[in-house]
Specification:
- This protein is α/β, with parallel strands linked by helices.
- The chain has a single domain, classed as Metal-dependent hydrolases (TIM Barrel, Alpha-Beta Barrel), CATH 3.20.20.
- It has 7 helices and 7 strands; from the N terminus they run E-H-E-H-E-E-H-E-H-H-E-H-E-H.
- Strands 1-2-3-4-5-6-7 form a 7-stranded parallel beta sheet, covered by helices on one side.
């Protein structure tokens, strides 16, 4: 027994994220949903681009810490559901994420994305194909693991995510995946040694290629990484997507409770 059950959602965007277009998707509504699902914990992980870092993406100009703090004080659950004040940051290339080290302590939980590849968004113009994006994602991850981050409260968000417009990944993607196996194993082992968490996110399965995605998750498991679940919901309708992770990832990977990543704030 000791099956890994979906009892937490540690990646969720509220109205404080500019990409959330559902005005009812408030912290209070998210917590009530968690209560209705019988969850033990939920995390608000709105996008954050620190005020002290130059904005390279106009859409992030308002995504500062002051904006995310609109969710404070956090609502309180009558059923004992824990709610974390977290954020989703970007790896900016070089030696930093979109959150200054002096502000790491503000958040209970920090997600880092290395692969937001939407058109015009952190993606070089000459990086167009899924294979090119995959190699760029891995190169970013290799640099990320060398940074002095508060790793025990770091989650790696939606690895393997590609925008739906990429369509089928194809032979070039498969070749890139196979040729980078040693590099991927090394970076997964470093993440495990750091004590970081790996996300199970229903969004990554949206474009197909499920076998390849599961193969990557198998490698992460073999390297000793532990997993947390996140709906990545941007609306109230998106919250239930998290339950698709059971047939798509949890059962195929044979995950058990020992494979669960638990942030320090929930320990």
């Amino acid at each position: 027994m000791n099956e890994y059950r979906i009892t937490q959602d540690l990646h969720c965007h509220s109205v404080c994220s500019v990409c959330c277009h559902d005005p009812t998707h408030t912290a209070e509504a998210i917590l009530r949903h968690a209560e209705a699902c019988g969850f033990s914990a939920i995390a608000l992980t709105d996008h954050v681009w620190d005020e002290g870092i130059a904005v390279t993406e106009e859409r992030y100009r308002i995504q500062n810490i002051k904006n995310s703090r609109r969710n404070l004080p956090l609502p309180v659950s009558a059923n004992g559901v824990r709610i974390l004040f977290g954020c989703e940051t970007e790896y900016l290339g070089g030696d930093g994420i979109s959150l200054l080290p002096t502000h790491y302590g503000i958040f209970d939980w920090i997600l880092v994305a290395v692969n937001h590849f939407m058109p015009g968004f952190f993606c070089p113009e000459d990086c167009r194909t899924p294979a090119q994006k995959y190699r760029l994602q891995l190169a970013r991850l290799e640099k990320l693991v060398t940074l002095p981050l508060p790793w025990e409260k770091i989650g790696i968000a939606h690895l393997s995510y590609f925008a739906p417009e990429d369509g089928a990944q194809g032979a070039d993607y498969d070749r890139a995946f196979l040729e980078t196996a040693d590099r991927r194993r090394a970076v997964f082992e470093m993440l495990a040694a750091h004590g970081a968490g790996m996300e199970l996110n229903p969004t990554v399965f949206r474009g197909g290629n499920e076998e390849r995605i599961r193969a990557e998750l198998w490698e992460a498991k073999a390297a000793g990484l532990r997993f947390y679940c996140g709906s990545d919901a941007h609306s109230r309708d998106g919250l239930d997507r998290i339950f698709t992770l059971r047939p798509k990832a949890i059962l195929p990977l044979g995950l058990r409770e020992k494979d669960r990543f638990v942030p320090p704030a929930l320990r």
